[in-house]
Design a protein that fits this description.
single chain, elongated, four-stranded mixed beta sheet, Ubiquitin-like (UB roll), 13 helices, five-stranded mixed beta sheet, 3 domains
Length: about 500
């Protein structure tokens, strides 16, 4: 869950940051154009959690090739003690706290948004028509409400306005309705609720509000309205809002008017950002779409190893009625890297796997690397051995099977020896039913011996059989290793939950 929060947060920041860079680089200053782009970013952020969790990803192989670690995990336990080290399916306490905090913030903002949406519909329903417009006593300033068919609602005192003031206000609000700014602002508020922990969501909501007002102001001025008279009209509306205490006397509604000083400066400055051509806007949209798609659906991945391409199989299996061979066998193994006894590893693995047949090439390579090569090194004390992704080549057909050459690059690391070996009861305050010395004898390793993974597993099996013979059929063992890197030793602890004796 933390990974989802982190990934969504990073991707959201990249979406906003990348879009801002594109707008700046392409010198887009027209408020209506910028508003359209940022509305698209809000839409992407709303689907980002679903896409991050379940959507397809495009791998961007920008990272260097990654070695595959094959033995950097805690000590594997024997198959007869399966329940001791299984991961818990329950969320941790930290995850529960994180989820609770997020849900509390989400519920609070969604509740506020829901109340505002319901009251907006009520305001529209209770407003009275008057000469092709609607009037409401709850409005201190003009507002536009509604998503797909927005409606302009004026305050009661609008009947005292001059025809020039009324024309200016209606031009501004009808532009909001034409652009469906109320829907865009509602989506921004929903996005803020979903990403309430992210500063970008709060910034987007305020930026969309400011750009919507600026775009509508530009339309009013473009129709020949005197800037000074328009600024005085906005100041009169602001005074009405100040006297009433709110723009609209319902919670969470309408566009906030906190950007008035900036709007006045822009209006009186008389400089409007020029409109951009359709061709340029299409280029801006394409650049933003490519950037946002990369940040939404892209996933950094490691470059592939330089595999030798397997040759096409052109020969036919004469023993299977002319059908192509479909099974694979290990024909040869090559160990690369600065390792000890490379020829011995090769011979031992080939001896076990030379007659094994597989329907899938990946299954063959995984099993040879994991069970064969890894096991051989771990049984000789190289507990933290790891390998790079193996390279394979098809050698041709042998007895109707595809013979494979596997090239394994191995970094064996240092050899570890057994340090302290402790056997405890779980819970620790209960004595063991079988003496510790007897249990210890089931393991043929002694302090100072090379740490042998196979021998530890065999010892766990012998302990299990010993407990079965004593009537403890439900006995479980929990092995744990503590690695001392400085002295190259592994301290081994076995905690035994004996359960109930049945016979």
């Amino acid at each position: 869950m933390e990974q989802l929060f982190l990934e969504c947060s990073v991707r959201a920041a990249l979406l906003v940051g990348g879009t801002a860079v594109v707008l700046y680089a392409m010198r887009v200053k027209h408020p209506a154009s910028k508003h359209s782009v940022w509305v698209g970013v809000v839409g992407l952020m709303l689907v980002l959690p679903i896409w991050t969790a379940w959507g397809p990803k495009a791998s961007l192989r920008l990272l260097p090739p990654m070695a595959r670690i094959t033995a950097n995990e805690p000590m594997p336990h024997a198959g007869s003690f399966p329940t001791a080290l299984l991961p818990s399916a329950q969320i941790s306490a930290w995850q529960a706290v994180l989820l609770a905090v997020y849900l509390f913030g989400l519920f609070l903002l969604l509740f506020r948004l829901g109340i505002g949406t319901v009251r907006a519909r009520r305001l529209l329903r209770d407003s009275a028509p008057h000469d092709s417009i609607r009037i409401s006593p709850f409005c201190a300033a003009p507002v536009t409400v509604g998503f797909f068919r927005p409606v302009v609602i004026l305050p009661e005192h609008s009947c005292q306005w001059t025809q020039a003031q009324l024309k200016v206000v209606l031009t501004h609000e009808h532009e909001h309705a034409r652009r469906r700014d109320s829907l865009a602002q509602w989506l921004a508020l929903l996005n803020r609720a979903l990403f309430w922990f992210h500063p970008a969501a709060w910034w987007l909501e305020r930026t969309l509000s400011a750009l919507a007002e600026e775009a509508c102001d530009n339309v009013v001025l473009a129709r020949g309205q005197n800037p000074r008279e328009y600024a005085e009209c906005l100041l009169n509306i602001a005074r009405s809002v100040t006297r009433s205490g709110a723009r609209v006397n319902v919670a969470g509604m309408a566009m906030p008017g906190s950007f008035l000083p900036r709007r006045i400066r822009q209006i009186m400055g008389g400089t409007q950002a020029p409109r951009i051509s359709r061709t340029r806007m299409a280029c801006v949209a394409a650049a933003c779409a490519i950037t946002c798609t990369a940040f939404t659906a892209g996933k950094l991945d490691h470059a592939k190893q330089n595999f030798s391409a397997p040759p096409a199989i052109t020969q036919r299996n004469t023993e299977s009625d002319g059908h192509p061979a479909s099974r694979f066998v290990l024909g040869d193994l090559k160990i690369e890297g600065n390792v000890h006894d490379r020829d011995g590893v090769r011979d031992r693995v080939l001896k076990v796997w030379k007659d094994q047949q597989y329907d899938d090439l990946k299954e063959l390579t995984d099993e040879v690397m994991e069970v064969g090569v890894r096991k051989d090194f771990q049984d000789r004390g190289y507990f933290k051995v790891f390998t790079k992704e193996p390279v394979f080549r098809l050698l041709g057909l042998v007895d109707g099977k595809n013979s494979v050459l596997l090239i394994a690059t191995v970094m064996e690391g240092v050899q570890f020896r057994l340090g302290n070996f402790t056997i405890q009861n779980n819970p620790a305050d209960h004595p063991l039913s079988i003496p510790e010395t007897t249990l210890r004898e089931q393991f043929y390793l002694r302090q100072g011996d090379l740490f042998n993974v196979s021998e530890v597993r065999a010892g766990l099996e012998r302990v299990k059989r010993l407990y079965d013979a004593k009537g403890f059929a439900d006995a479980n063992g929990e092995p744990a290793t503590a690695i001392d890197e400085a002295h190259h030793i592994i301290n081994f602890t076995l905690r035994i939950a004996e359960g109930v004796r049945t016979k």
